[in-house]
Amino acid sequence: MKKSLFFCFILISHWLFSQDIDFYLKTKNQNFLLPSITKQMSADEFQLLSRNIRMQDFIYAAFVPGYIHFQAKDYTLGYTLLGLRLSSYALLTYENYKYGFKWYNILFRYVGSNISSTSLSNNKIDIYIINTALSIIIASYLFDVIDGQARLHKKQELIRYKYSLKFQLYTNAYNKSMPMIGFNLKF
Amino acid sequence: MKSINLIFLIVILLSSGVYSQNFNIKAESQYLEIINNQQRRDLIAISMRNAEIISDSLFCNNYAYGSEFFLNLAESYYLLKRYNYVFFTVLRLRCLYPSERYINREHDLFYISCKKLKIPQYIADSIWRMTDSQSIHLLSYDKRKQLLLKTAMFAMDRKLYSTLFHYINLYENQTITENIPLYMAQWKLLYSLKFKPKKILSNVNFNATTVSYNFSDLQKSFSLKFNKKVSRRLKLNMFFRSYF
Hints:
The complex is a heterodimer of chains A (187) and B (244).
Chain A: H1 2-18, H2 43-50, H3 55-63, H4 67-71, H5 75-99, H6 103-107, H7 124-177
Chain B: H1 2-38, H2 41-60, H3 66-79, H4 83-96, H5 103-116, H6 121-130, H7 133-136, H8 141-152, H9 158-174, H10 182-192, H11 197-203, H12 215-243
């Protein structure tokens, strides 16, 4: 009992500290930090660099199909996941209407269901439909979370690589070839 | 004495601006070379936007290191398999920076892109001859730009035509006289009316001195387009009237 209380105390204190359901701090004042960006950077690249996938986003992804891919600006995959998930929800709804909200009994081998034994042999297709719909929902969620995050990270790495390499080349080209006279003042 | 100092200062400031732009282009060219060697298509794809900004500035002003930059850019587009832009970039290299430095690679890239774009052999040959360094190195930069835009129209590619439209606008903003050549104006009009590339090219008259629209063809397509729009609008109107 004491242990669980202690655990709850730590959890709640962390949440209070981070100001949302995440464990690490994110304050509203962070939005007022204005980073110095290069002239060539586009708004899309800036958005991609400033995005982080947090625990909150994992929960959103359960309700909004393809959410993480939309965050990573991968719209084709995002909409594909959205379509897949919606179609599987539609299939489940169809089964719901067919069996009067007892379709989950078909999954668990008709234990405690009101469906008669004669219809058992005829329901194989329904079992397949429900199984595939459920597996698509779970798989699409997992794919969205894992692949979306990987894609976002990859894009961020490429953008960082591009601008850091360019910055090096620009400074090298300018410093090596430019004859300059300057004044230096130190205190 | 003061005025001499002032002039000296202004000259230094102006020259430093030009030099810095030259080194920007050199750095961009080096960057393209590095990523081309890695053959990472994803990295090349995200770098093309920045490269096109630099090539816009090269189109407006004749800076140094432009030829290297355009060759590397053409290689990048070739790795991305965007042959329409390979064609356009080789033309940019040949027209804006006529020299025989990269002639073999230019030739390969140009004819490969022409083949992929299904440009007939005789047109490709004539474009190659028109943009030969011996024939255009005495032309002014303005005339070379005109040649580039005129030859790029033969690509007959919708995606490339959007870039070409942007380039003609750049050219129009840069010209000292207010008028642009008539064929450019015709091309712009037909493009903005969303005609198909083949239709645009067949209706553009390249003799810049005279105006001659092929009105019979144009009128047909105009009437078809407007009829469709009008009928759609009439149907909508009827629907609203019946509904309310």
